[in-house]
Amino acid sequence: STAAVVDEQPIKPLVQVEHTGLLIDGKFVDAASGKTFPTLDPRTGEVIAHVAEGHSEDIDRAVAAARKAFDIGPWPKMTAYERQKIMLRAADLIEKHNDEIATLETWDNGKPYEQSRQVEIPMLVRLIRYYAGWADKIHGLTVPADGAYHVQTLHEPIGVAGQIIPWNFPLLMFAWKVGPALACGNTVVMKTAEQTPLSALYTARLFLEAGLPPGVLNIVSGFGPTAGAALASHMDVDKVAFTGSTATGKVILQLAAQSNLKQVTLELGGKSPFIVCEDADVDQAVELAHFALFFNQGQCCCAGSRTFVHERVYDEFVEKAKIRALNRSVGDPFKSGIEQGPQIDSKQFEKILRYIRSGVDTGATLETGGERHGSKGYYIQPTVFSNVQDDMLIAKEEIFGPVQTILKFKNNEEVIQRANNSKYGLAAGIFTQNIDTANTLTRALKVGTVWVNCYDVFDATIPFGGYKMSGQGREKGEYSIKNYLNVKAVVTPLKNP
Ligand code: ADP
């Protein structure tokens, strides 16, 4: 079916790349070394722009600027209301430039423009407003202690936050990290992903326009082992927040421990079960399971990447899942109606094709897809495997691509045991009309998020994070605020109690 794809001319994006420098102390500057690296268009592999490449000297400069903006101020010394107003103004500016930002995001990342424009940039705005709302609602407690003491807690910003983000949702990851840090009065040095540096630079510029003081938000583009590692191991960074692979998460934790024991939050990989129970309406289950896996080219840490289907509905499910994948529209993400664009880069593209070969080699049934789509760029055919066994690599490791793996199960006890038999514990989906089944599975699954009869619902208020090797700490919602606060207990004797 997809074999006869004709390559089209890529649609020309209607924006110019304005910012390619490092953002340090309120100015876009060259890297100390003068080096740059190319950021590529995943539709073609061609260069979009050359971006300043930060190394440890640049991280040092950015941390010094953030330190000054924290210690001398004005950021943590401003009133919470003033900080809130700046964040709200930034959100207004982002909203005004929604389409330009969405264009940059799609150009650099390859995700459908309609998704960037209608979902992700509006969600970025929503997140910044949500966190702005927190700024003036953060306060400590008065604590009743034994004895004649007046005891209170002060909730203080931690200081300089280092933040390292991935390429799959560049601006949502930006918002999840910058939002709570700024609301609590911290200053930030962010290392964006080397695949997608452009949209954060543009968005940070709008924060400056909104009145964010210099040094409060610094952005250093560059690579992980150089710029990223320098940030995670910096002696003057007080906290590091990381989203990415579990392997790199371990490195971050080590670097933090070996340097100054900075506080760490980690949001890592997953191999999330999506469980279709025996009472499922198969058409609806197929559609939701398809969305859970294929959304964002399959490049989601919480992708529903183990589709467990009850034996009673299994055959019908597999047949319909295959047809749905065959009908998925793949092509230039700037074209309207496109559901799937290219994967992020050649490394991910090759890795996904290797996993597909491993699925075939280990005896899973390739129902559809399995090859590249077209002849240029990093497009991959929507791929469905059935007859997948738990011990196959494709059922254990994170593929991070458009590859659905369908496994058969007989009863709830069995599926609970198999779903939990993973080093990961990020999320799970349950599809059933039976409230007892939903309650039983929800409580038994060792994961940070359970979506019942829905998937990938990401409101600003809902905490997100992992059990087991999927991470430490929670982002979004009230839970994310405490990642950016220190608690100071203040004890004063009462002279005349
Ligand atoms: P992926 O393999 O999907 O790119 P990574 O975990 O390697 O996932 O990347 C997520 C982020 O972590 C990126 O910004 C990347 O540059 C950064 N990174 C990668 N390696 C390191 C490292 N050794 N130290 C610090 N940051 C790193």
From TrEMBL:
Q: Where is the Aldehyde dehydrogenase domain?
A: 28-490
User: What molecular functions are annotated in GO for this chain?
Assistant: aldehyde dehydrogenase (NAD+) activity
Supply the name of the protein: aldehyde dehydrogenase (NAD(+))
Q: Where in the cell is it found?
A: Mitochondrion matrix
Its Enzyme Commission number(s) read: 1.2.1.3
Which CDD domains does the protein's record reference? ALDH_F2BC (cd07142)
Looking up SUPFAM superfamilies in the UniProt record yields: ALDH-like
Claim: Lipid metabolism is one of the keywords in the record:
no
| GO cellular component labels | mitochondrial matrix
Q: Which organism is it from?
A: Vicia faba (Broad bean)
**Reactions catalysed according to its record:** an aldehyde + NAD(+) + H2O = a carboxylate + NADH + 2 H(+)
Q: Which biological process, per GO, is one annotated for this protein?
A: carboxylic acid metabolic process
Highest taxon of the lineage: Eukaryota
UniProt key word Glycoprotein: no
